[in-house]
Design goal:
Endonuclease Iii, domain 2, mainly alpha, 2 domains, Endonuclease III, domain 1, single chain
Length: about 220
């Protein structure tokens, strides 16, 4: 549902540089040479940074199936099924719990609504990635995983990599035929070889797990 998806950079050049620098990436790219890094974003039921952050908060520590069900019920609380920051900020915790959010997530969501309504998300698209992430992790319940995931969903920047996402870690384990699940630190280190095209690399890794996404669980937010 993302309007005007974008990818900053030359996709063809990014593919060639990934292929040249990593034989596993070469295999994944050759299996789907026309995959665009925005393809997975376009399928998500969110628009803009506020909705992306709310979507990420909903998905903390639960399965993708549960996340989607709760998110649908949450959106149904708003006019036109579009979450509104000002309405969310005033929504009773019990109402939010009634759609499946934990008490803690309900408080995180209300805090996000207050901050978004106050304009604290304005202008983040114009900041460097690290600075935008640092501002977001100051919010209640938003750690690096939630912030990076939301920034990637909302803006499609070309070099954002969510190393702590459990689906990503499983994708790396599968693609690189590793004996065990790699840690976030190990996946982050592996991602160094994909700079400055980590968004495209992530798109290929997520795509390689597409048939199994509903059986995976989201990584906990480290600040929750």
């Amino acid at each position: 549902m993302i309007r005007n998806p974008k990818f900053v950079g030359d996709v063809s050049l990014a593919r060639e540089e990934l292929r040249a620098g990593d034989p596993v990436m070469r295999r994944l790219i050759d299996a789907n040479p026309d995959l665009h890094p925005d393809s997975w974003r376009e399928a998500l039921p969110v628009e803009g940074l506020f909705e992306a952050l709310l979507f990420q908060i909903v998905g903390q520590q639960i399965s993708v199936t549960a996340m989607n069900a709760i998110h649908i019920r949450l959106c149904a609380l708003f006019p036109g099924n579009r979450p509104d920051p000002a309405i969310l900020a005033e929504m009773p915790v019990e109402t939010l719990r009634g759609v499946g959010l934990s008490a803690r997530k309900a408080e995180y969501a209300r805090d996000l609504g207050r901050r978004a309504a106050a304009g604290e998300l304005d202008g983040l698209a114009d900041l460097p990635h690290e600075e935008a992430r640092d501002r977001l992790v100051a919010f209640r319940g938003i750690g690096p995983w939630t912030a990076d995931g939301a920034l990637l969903i909302a803006f499609g920047w070309s070099d954002v990599f969510v190393a702590g996402d459990l689906v990503m870690r499983k994708a790396v384990q599968r693609a690189y035929d590793l004996p065990g699940l790699p840690s976030e630190k190990e996946v982050d280190a592996l991602g160094e070889r994909w700079k400055p095209h980590r968004t495209l690399a992530a798109a290929y890794l997520f795509d390689s797990m597409a048939p199994n996404l509903t059986s995976n669980h989201r990584e906990p937010n480290v600040t929750a």
